[in-house]
Amino acid sequence: MVEDDIAYASWRDGGLTILDVKDKTEPKSIVHRNWSPPFGGCTHSALPLHDRDLLIVADEAALNIDREQMKRTWIFDIREKSNPVSIATMPTPSDRDYVKIGGQFGPHNLHENRPGSFRSSTTIFATWQSAGVRVFDIADPYRPAEIGYFVPPQPSAWMEPMRGRAKIRHTADLFVAEDGLMYVTDYDAGLYILQWNGA
Hints:
Shape: globular
Number of domains: 1
CATH superfamily: YVTN repeat-like/Quinoprotein amine dehydrogenase
Structural class: mainly beta
Number of strands: 14
Helix content: under 10%
Number of helices: 1
Order of helices and strands: EEEEEEEEHEEEEEE
CATH architecture: 7 Propeller
Distance between the termini: 24 Å
Oligomer: single chain
Strand order of the largest sheet: 1-2-3-4
Largest sheet: 4 strands, antiparallel
Radius of gyration: 17 Å
């Protein structure tokens, strides 16, 4: 993601890199951060919110939950781009015992606030694989709160089962349109279209 000529790159187990890309032919490193180890890594998505000097970063759950530690979605204070500071993590879904259910339980992707889409610096949309879609309010970035969720039913047919992975829903990507329509994909179950009626 690029905002105000600053690029935020997710490097899987290499963590996060922030780059100055004002000169597109010669990107310059501002800072590199890697919290793996001790955390599980697999940094997947970074969403800058420059109007609030915040950065949301999701670490992807890449394996079944019994084979890796719980992954997190982090909130960073980026007032000083060369020194991003983690100030909070999004709540872990707790409406069901997803660890007991098994499969890939953890963050995957964030709605990216692209031009022409739903844009907010306080409402964050995320996919959580076996836990479906999650919506968070970060009006207070030190105390993020879950304000909505949708957990699809288990797929009735498996179009592309992944070897060694539990057969369970796998909510993967999402896009939220300006009118609040949410387009949500599952690796096996296809596309869901939801309507966000919140703030």
